[in-house]
User: Which sequence fits this backbone?
């Protein structure tokens, strides 16, 4: 599944953007929440998640790039998040936060940055429905893809067939086939959709096609 990252969308026309992505075939949306503390950039919080929720029934994959994510879980669930991703680098102990996400029937996801080794998340995997391997340092769209994420995906896929695997950062026409072959099912794409010269429908179809054919499946 290719998930458009709303970071690069036109926020002045949020409802229109969401509807256009839905009409273009998006099956879920990725929302990047940044606090200017955990990452050197600021985006938005619960009100935008809530505004997107009012305009669509699509699953909302909310990526929390914030310090102390545990303080905001219930608010993001109430705002309409379907899955919540916290960063292992942002908390001392991810377990209670992941457990709370699950208690609210949302998908619990743990993310790790490119320099963070898999060992840092190993003991928390029983509390994860999904793992996000970052293929850029979080904070900004349009950064170059870091292949270290592929090695992590391969290792996780070989050892944990039940885990949903996601990749985020620099996913585009050149990198998406490798991501899928490495085991990623959730492919987040920002600039490859929003800075492309073709329509949302065409870029989503191209990315989905490249991803599917990499593993010999029909799109
Ligand atoms: C990076 C964000 C990503 C970003 C992806 O901090 O988590 O979701 O928007 O953008 P691209 O696909 O342009 O790297
Ligand atoms: Zn993201």
Assistant:
């Amino acid at each position: 599944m290719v998930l458009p990252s709303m970071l690069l969308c036109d926020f002045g026309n949020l409802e229109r953007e969401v509807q256009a992505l839905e009409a273009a075939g998006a099956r879920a949306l990725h929302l990047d929440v940044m606090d200017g503390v955990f990452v050197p950039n600021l985006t938005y919080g619960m009100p935008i998640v809530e505004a997107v929720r009012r305009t669509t029934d699509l699953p909302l994959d909310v990526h929390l790039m914030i310090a102390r994510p545990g303080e905001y879980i219930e608010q993001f669930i109430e705002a309409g998040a379907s899955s919540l991703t916290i960063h292992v680098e942002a908390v001392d102990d991810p377990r209670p936060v992941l457990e709370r996400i699950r208690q609210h029937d949302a998908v619990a996801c743990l993310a790790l940055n490119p320099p963070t080794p898999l060992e840092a998340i190993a003991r928390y995997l029983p509390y994860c429905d999904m793992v996000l391997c970052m293929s850029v340092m979080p904070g900004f769209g349009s950064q170059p893809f870091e292949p270290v994420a592929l090695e992590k995906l391969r290792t996780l896929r070989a050892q944990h067939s039940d885990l949903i695997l996601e990749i985020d950062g620099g996913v585009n026409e050149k990198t998406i086939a490798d991501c899928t072959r490495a085991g990623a099912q959730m492919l987040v794409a920002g600039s490859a959709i929003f800075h492309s010269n073709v329509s949302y429908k065409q870029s989503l179809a191209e990315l989905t096609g490249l991803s599917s054919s990499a593993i010999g499946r029909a799109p």
